Amino acid sequence: MTTPPARLLIKNGTLIDGSGRGPVPNALVVVEGNRITHVSPREGSMRPESPDDKVIDAAGKFILPGLIDAHCHISLHQGALPGVKYTSSAEFCTLWAAHGIGRVLRAGVTSITVPGGKWFTDVTVREAVEGGLLEGPRMVVAARALSNYGGIFDPDPYPAYEGTPNDAAGVLCNTRDEFIRETRKQCKRGVDLIKIADSIWGDIQTVAKDEISAVVDEAHRHNVKVAIHSRGSTSTRAAAEAGVDLIYHGDWASEADLDIVAKAAIPIAPVLTSPWIGVEQGAAGRSLGERARDRLRAQLDTSFQMIRNARDRGIPILSGSDTGNASAFTHGRWHGKEAKLFVREIGMTPMEAIVANTSGNAWLLNLDGEVGVIAPGKLADIVIWDSDPIADIAVLQRPAEISRIIKDGRIVDRDAGGLLPLPEEPPRARIFVSG
Ligand SMILES: [Zn+2]
Question: What is the mean pLDDT of residues 217-233?
Answer without folding.
Answer: 97
